[in-house]
Design brief:
single chain, 674 residues, alpha/beta, TIM Barrel, Phosphorylase Kinase, domain 1, 3 domains, 20 helices
Length: 674
């Protein structure tokens, strides 16, 4: 461990004594981030202090452009730093930071946190920003409205013009673009089981009719009965916006008759989007009506066999309204088969033989669903000027025959979204896929690598974060990802930590050699990387921490004390691993000094990466000025003779080492001398 021990007192004193110096270096463009600014301090900075810093860094004219939330087209938005690209290849070398807005409270705090992120980490992925359903999960979206819990009262008080969460999001994306960051959103091919989308477009989802704990029908056409129930509710209770019903049931529900816009349809059924409580009340009333009469959406599934479900009549929960929610199970489960009870997937394909055998007809896409889904994502992209999407559950490949030799335009909805947005003129719009690069027929039918190429993913998450640094599993994955990087059209990420792995179950992954994870993610310049918010100060958790110390548990919004493993009370608690933070600061400072010489360059291995060899050495293909050394072996030091041999006995000037922090798992940087 480092000879210097940093405490909260020393770190806060360091900031108090030197904050003006750090801010001045940032605002005068000497640094691309504010040095030694702890995230927990950053998110507490005063709004006026932040605006002052931004004005000094960016200029008042740029801030005024960022404050224009009323633009009708993107020509008045602050240009994205990647918008000049004619394709989406740029994402293949991007170092991404993932931010769950719920952990830091509001959208404006994203800007505050971004002040701690250097230029070497050039992309920001915002975890789902949509209005969540009744269970509160960010991935159980209930509408395409922006989540109002992300509204910053502080920002609105300082700048009254930014008096809605939508305006604030536009402002935040503008500022992030001005700071040199590309910004991406989650694209989610499923919703809450009784979302506004489900009730507005019943034929866009799969339904079942049940009696007690038994499915009595899973017919393709049950949606007609559901539409009838919703129609009678409207006739009986009136429209939510008070307008008379001067149209037929078919006009209201059929996508073939586009007389009503999506916005009109939502206002008729639920009310104005700003009336959150009124919309929630109507949605719950309609949900109760449907459940009472025995109708519910089929829950979403993951992994083979995807299809063929039954209800376990002995397993259920009763919610606060007295509704009984049964557990669905697979008839023939496989290793990774999962049923997500709170979620419903869009019905992208019609079924065969009226769904008698739970088979989808992949030659018969539900084209109106595809158009609706693509259009809604495009509207979001246009409104907020977003640069890429993280495709949630991109590993879904439900065709039992595997990846077709020639996938058509209806092969995958996430692929369709990428092409749809690009065809509208946003050529740089990129696709970051959530897959785990596992063996064939495990998470999806067929070879996942073939699937990633078929959906034209630019990069993919991978699963490197789910193993201990230097372990055989870690080395096997790392070697595999490097081979895929050069053999395939997509780029695997050197993934450091994600929100779904910042969970008590995965503490063992982050107890050792976290500095190696960050080092490789920054300096292996031809492989993209991903790191989640909070990693920089994450506690080692030799014993399980409080729930509030894990960002994963803020993907949910569970307040029930009976759910001890997931319930949270109060805000996220930042880690206190200040020694790790200081070492990361040193790495960022090194990257800051040499970034323009190394960014995006191809790697040349001086000591070939292999599963058995835990010492790796590389330089850059067309600019071999620097040599990077990483030792994944905790039991042996770096072999100096071997290092000299692999660098052709060239004079080496060591400019960085982590040995002062840890004698094990050392990493170094050398500058080649003439």
């Amino acid at each position: 461990m480092t000879t210097d021990t940093y405490t909260q007192t020393s770190m806060f004193d360091l900031w108090r004594q030197n904050h003006n110096l750090y801010k001045d270096k940032y605002t005068s463009h000497q640094t691309s981030y504010i040095e030694n600014l702890l995230p927990e301090i950053a998110v507490q900075l005063n709004v006026y202090d932040i605006i002052d810093i931004l004005q000094r860094r960016l200029g008042n004219d740029l801030i005024q452009r960022a404050l224009d939330p009323s633009r009708v087209d993107l020509s008045r938005a602050i240009e994205s730093p990647v918008s000049h690209h004619q394709n989406s290849q740029w994402l293949k070398k991007s170092n991404m930071v993932g931010i769950n807005v719920r952990t830091i409270g509001n959208l404006f705090n994203v800007v505050k946190y971004a002040l701690t992120i250097p230029k070497s980490q050039d992309s920001i992925h915002l975890l789902p920003i949509w209005e969540p359903g009744v269970v509160g999960s960010l991935y159980g979206m209930t509408s395409f409205n922006i989540n109002t819990e992300f509204y910053s009262h502080e920002l609105a008080s300082a700048i009254p013009l930014l008096n809605s969460v939508e305006k604030q999001l536009k402002f935040v994306v503008n500022i992030l673009h001005a700071m040199g960051k590309s910004v991406g959103m989650d694209v989610i091919p499923h919703t809450d089981r009784f979302s506004e989308m489900v009730i507005s477009y019943p034929r866009f989802f799969e339904w079942v009719r049940r009696v007690g704990g038994r499915i009595t029908s899973n017919s393709e056409t049950i949606y007609r009965e559901v539409e009838e129930i919703i129609w009678h509710y409207l006739v009986r209770n009136g429209t939510a916006n008070g307008t008379p019903i001067s149209y037929s049931k078919n006009t209201l529900f059929s996508p073939e008759i586009p007389i009503l816009s999506d916005e009109q349809r939502l206002e008729i059924i639920f009310g104005h989007k700003n009336d959150a409580q009124g919309r929630l009340r109507r949605r719950i009333e309609l949900m109760h009506e449907l459940i009472y009469q025995g109708y519910e959406t089929l829950p979403m599934t993951m992994a083979p066999p995807y299809r063929g479900l039954h209800i376990n009549p002995e397993e259920f929960v009763i919610d606060e309204n007295g509704n009984r929610w049964y557990t669905y199970e697979f008839d023939k489960p496989q290793a990774m088969s999962r049923v997500f009870g709170p979620l419903a997937r869009y019905k992208f394909f019609h079924s065969k033989d009226d769904n008698v055998n739970w088979e989808l007809d992949f030659e018969n896409p539900n084209k109106y669903v595809w158009e609706y889904f693509c259009q809604k994502v495009f509207e979001c992209q246009q409104t907020y000027n977003l640069d890429f999407m993280r495709g949630d559950m991109a590993h879904v490949q439900p065709r039992p025959d595997g990846v077709p030799a020639k996938p058509n335009e209806f092969y995958d909805p996430l692929m369709a979204v990428k092409y749809y947005v690009q065809k509208q003129g946003v050529k740089h719009f990129a696709f970051f896929a959530e897959t785990f690069l596992v063996e064939a027929n495990f998470m999806g039918y067929g070879d996942e690598n073939d699937h990633l190429e078929a959906i034209d993913a630019d990069s993919t998450l991978g699963d490197l974060q789910s193993s201990v640094v230097g372990s055989p599993e870690f080395m096997q994955k790392f070697v595999k990802y490097n081979k895929l990087l050069h053999a395939r059209n997509f780029a695997p990420n050197f993934t450091v930590m994600t929100a779904d792995k910042d969970d008590p179950r995965f503490d063992e992954f982050y107890r050792t050699a976290n500095h190696l994870r960050l080092f490789v993610s920054l300096f292996l310049t031809d492989m993209p990387s991903y790191v989640g918010l909070g990693f920089e100060t994450r506690n080692l958790h030799l014993e399980r921490g409080k729930n509030e110390e894990y960002t994963k548990l803020y993907v949910y919004a569970i307040r029930d004390d009976n759910d001890r493993d997931k319930v949270t009370h109060g805000p996220f608690i930042w880690g206190k691993n200040y020694n790790q933070f200081q070492l990361f600061q040193q790495m960022h400072q090194l990257a800051e000094n040499i970034w323009e010489e190394i960014k995006g360059r191809s790697v040349k291995w001086l000591f070939e990466l292999s599963e058995e060899q835990k010492l790796i050495i590389w330089t850059l293909q067309d600019n071999p000025k620097y040599v990077f050394v990483v030792n994944f072996d905790p039991h042996n030091d770096i072999d100096e003779n071997l290092l000299q041999e692999k660098t052709f006995n060239h004079p080496l000037n060591q400019i960085f080492t982590t040995r002062h922090y840890s004698q094990q798992h050392e990493c170094r940087v050398y500058r080649l001398e003439d």
